[in-house]
Amino acid sequence: MSALASLTKPTLFAASVSLAITGSALFSGNADAAKKKTGLDVQIHYLRMMPKVRPVLSNLEPAPKNSGLAGAELGIKDSNTTGRFTGQHYMLNSQYFESEEAFMAEADRLMQKNALVLIDAPSGLLAQTDKLAAERGALIFNTGNSDDQLRTSLCLNNTFHTYPSRAMHTDALAQWLATRRFSRWMLIEGPAEEDKAYASALKRSAKRFGSEIVLKKEWTFDSDLRRTAQKELPLFTQGDEYDVVLVADEAGDFGHYVPYNTWLPRPVAGTQGLTPKAWHKVVEQWGAAQLQSRFEKLHDRHMNDKDYAAWAAIRSISEAILQNKEQKGIQHHAEPMKHFLLSEKFHLAAFKGHKLTYRQWNGQLRQPMPLVQPRSLVSQSPQAGYLHPKTELDTLGFDQQESQCRINQS
User: Fold this and answer.
1) Which H helix or E strand runs over 191?
2) DSSP for residue 250
3) pTM for the structure as a whole
4) Closest to 139 (Cα-Cα) out of 162, 115, 123
5) Which domains does the chain have, with CATH numbers?
6) Residue 382: is the preceding peptide bond cis (ω within 30°)?
7) What pairing do the DSSP bridges indicate for beta strands 88-97 and 18-23?
8) Are 112 and 105 in contact (CB under 8 A)?
9) Separation of alpha carbons 303 and 320, rounded Å
């Protein structure tokens, strides 16, 4: 057995939470059945594909190996706290994977009728598992992939996204920059594919909210910025007048060295500096301090955005079971849960100051986006004044008319 395979429980890295529903009825509202000890058992499988991490200059704060899984474990614990009184019992079986072949083999085994699955994996694997879910009557929750195409063109009909898209991240930032009148942007784009995708999202957000990218530069250097940043970065950031420097460096290779080293004394934002996040340790309003405290007590570290997405996925499942009032015809089926989660009846209280719901066209969880620096919350988007016919949360990310997806019709 590899060292990776022995990390935790049955864990191998691929974030897929498969909910096999057994017991009485998935959405049974029968009070007598809820009182029985043999009520509703919900088996959740969490699979995560271990990411290929490229080397970076500084690795002072490596991502926790249990990112995502830790949030799922708290979600199980929170759901069982309520489930003791309402007749549900939630269980978690987690697996991590190093190879795509092993991941798909396990996904194929787990993806059966009435399974509910959370996945943290690359887009190609998500698309393959979604196809299995559609064929076999299962549901997937994407808890770690921000790819915009999953919400606009690939259209995963049996997948919900609790992790925000890149467009939601960059729209949240662009709204705040517009309110502060930082409208002239310098963009520094890293060499990786994910950096280019983030830069593309920034360009879209700039156009959407009335800002202009007046200077764009690509980072192609391999020098050790730990020793040379003070000399190299001021020269690199020379150019036309700009109000703010936007960085697209998702791996954190060079972006951390940009603040305070620009030619003009300007703020830095994007993947470094002022950063849009799904969740961060500095979020404490709206009762969030309680969630932070429970997580830290359970795992002895701070909760991150992947932890939050996995927690929200499991809480969505348990809340859907509690909130659904129908009595007949939907027992032991995941399909009714899909339609309920997409309906206006469902909502999730998730410590962000809003009741969260899912977008009917692509399954994205609507949510406010904190804008943070390392030790404080600066703001939370959507910003005041950005209106929308349905909800201001739909000013973040791709709106219905911008997406080809219509999963509510599938």
Assistant:
1) none
2) T
3) 0.90
4) 115
5) 1-164+279-367 (3.40.50.2300), 167-276 (3.40.50.2300)
6) yes
7) unpaired
8) no
9) 24
